Amino acid sequence: MDRPSQIHVTDAPEDPAAQAEALRPSLVRLGAAVTGDLETGRDLAQEAYLALARRDDVRDPEAWLRRVVVNQARSWVRRQSRHRSYLSRWERWRLERADQLGGADLADQLAVREALSRLSAQHRAVLVLRFYDDLSVPQIASTLGVAEGTVKSRLHRGLARMKEAVDADD
């Protein structure tokens, strides 16, 4: 019995890697459509190709790449929404706090903000979670996925660096 002949598109590359590469514009559009940002779409497509290069067990590279881009885009959107939500809460808190405090405390607020900005992201995160969000050391450790001892040392060092920064400005 004769097998039906397969139809080949003449302009489609035969090499699987070339076929996957030809999919790049589609992946960029997919990532950009989900995230709403063209540059992020490009980044997601590139990350998907890098992930594919580390794998040798992918049977359908096109479907796999699309799935990876969608999953990464959804994660990106979730991170952005959490970030926007946090900034929104921070701004509301800051405005409420500014209304409660008098103008004399504004200089102190600015000094604290400046000192915080000079810290590493790790120290800043621990200090904000402790003193602005009023979380306990175990809660901070759980939130950041680090040991309680790490939280304590970052609190200690962060406060010491803030004190140095504020004292240097006086």
Percent of residues in β-strands: under 5%
Strands, count? 0
The SS-based structural class is mainly alpha
What is the succession of H and E elements?
HHHHHHHH
Overall 3D shape: elongated
Largest sheet: none
- SS field, number of helical segments: 8
- Give average pLDDT, whole number: 79
Low-confidence stretches: 1-12
Give the distance, in angstroms, between the N- and C-terminal Cα atoms. 92 Å
> Helical proportion?
over 70%
Structural Rg: 25 Å
Write up what this structure looks like:
This protein is mainly alpha-helical and 170 residues long. It is built from eight helices and no strands. Helix 2 (24-35) crosses helix 3 (38-53), helix 2 (24-35) runs parallel beside helix 4 (61-100) and helix 6 packs across helix 8. The longest helix has 40 residues, at 61-100.
Detail the topology: elements first, then pairings:
Elements: H1 16-22, H2 24-35, H3 38-53, H4 61-100, H5 104-117, H6 121-132, H7 137-144, H8 148-169
Q: Which terms would index this structure?
A:
single chain; disordered N terminus
Task: Write a brief structural summary.
By secondary structure, the protein is mostly helical. It contains eight helices and no strands.
